[in-house]
Design a protein that fits this description.
Blueprint lengths: L2 H18 L8 H9 L4 H24 L6 H29 L6 H17 L8 H31 L15
Helix pairs in contact: 2-3, 3-4, 3-5, 4-6, 5-6
């Protein structure tokens, strides 16, 4: 192989990962801090994730209710990817809370209600090759999250009916992730 071909290959190896990483980080420092602060109470943590996802999807909804601006399709792609990342992280937390019997009974109905709203918003933008794949992945993450939350409602109801929390017992809930 010639030196020119080797240098092109080396350049490509350096450029393509940098291009793939150019998207925004899914969380700001303040949002990371909110998640950390809510680590000890599972119900609060679920509500923080709902709020963070709502923020992104409200931005997406507003982009399609206001006059079109340049870069809207790429922003849609990025927001769909951020949604998927947050939904998957929330799903991981729910996976942890279920078997450990963390009390998230107050947050689950709100989460299920939010998944309906999120689905509507994710389906609003018209088809476009820039974001169709990321939107499809986001909708799959949403479906998984909805199914998981719906299943947890019944599991939590059954568990806490058989094991009611004691009113004077200290709150021993601790579930950081």
């Amino acid at each position: 192989m010639s030196r020119f071909a080797l240098s092109l290959l080396a350049l490509a190896v350096l450029i393509f990962p940098a291009h793939a990483q150019r998207g925004e980080a899914p969380l700001t420092d303040a949002e990371i801090e909110q998640i950390r602060d809510s680590a000890y109470i599972a119900n609060d943590r679920v509500m923080v994730f709902i709020k963070l996802i709502d923020t992104r999807l409200n931005t997406l909804r507003e982009m399609y209710t206001k006059p079109r601006r340049p870069g809207r399709e790429q922003d849609t792609h990025d927001l769909c990817e951020q949604f998927s990342s947050l939904a998957d992280e929330l799903s991981d937390n729910l996976e942890d809370y279920g078997p450990r019997h963390r009390d998230i009974r107050k947050a689950l109905p709100k989460l299920i209600e939010a998944t309906e709203r999120w689905g509507t918003i994710l389906r609003t933008p018209p088809d476009n090759g820039v974001y169709n794949v990321s939107r499809k992945i986001a909708l799959e993450s949403l479906q998984d999250l909805r199914e998981q939350a719906t299943g947890l409602v019944e599991e939590q109801k059954t568990w806490f009916a058989a094991h009611p929390p004691q009113k004077d017992a200290p709150n021993t809930e601790y579930a950081p992730r």
